[in-house]
Amino acid sequence: MEINIGISEENRQKSAQGVRQLLANTYTLYLKTHGYHWNVEGPHFQQLHVQFMEQYTEMWTAVDELAERIRALGHFAPSSYAEMAELSDVAEESGKPDWKEMVQTLAKGHEQVAKTARDVLRIAEEVGDDATADIVAPRVTLHEKSAWMLRATAS
Ligand SMILES: [Fe+2]
User: Could you tell me if 145 and 153 are in contact, meaning their C-beta atoms sit under 8 angstroms apart?
Assistant: First the structure.
């Protein structure tokens, strides 16, 4: 069936492409955070193990909402590591960072995703896609908050 939700095909495409990018950013940061939850060591193990779990759980929930918004706009969500990596602004990790490097890397990751989310919010507003804007605006707040908490942890 044709989509008829009052947003042109061109504008749905713009909005969906932004959300695809935000989803890939969030997924890449989710995976990195979950990996750090497993691999963190040192004097702050318990606190960081739990803090990372809270953050990856939040992002895991968020990616589902982002993916389903892409589908509601008539587009397909990225669903492979290759697609996620290609769309993401958050770099993948290799090596064995210590606990402080993990916290700093995640802080930078949340700052990056906050910027991406803000850019997508602007696109959604420009094309009159209120529902996407409603989903994306809280992502800016959340990632800025997580970045603050991680910066505070590392200092
Ligand atoms: Fe666990």
Answer: no
- Which tokens sit at 103? 């916290």
Provide CATH code, domain 9-154.
Answer: 1.20.1260.10
Going from the Cα of 35 to the center of ligand 1, the distance in angstroms, rounded, reads: 10
How far apart are the CA of 151 and the centre of ligand 1, in A?
A: 23
pLDDT tens for each residue of 8-59: 999 999 999 999 999 999 999 999 999 999 999 999 999 999 999 999 999 9
96 CA distance to ligand 1 middle (Å) = 19
Domain boundaries, the chain: 9-154
Backbone angles phi, psi at 8, to 5 degrees: -65, 160
Report CA(43)–ligand 1 centroid distance (Å). Answer: 18
What does pTM read for this prediction? Answer: 0.96
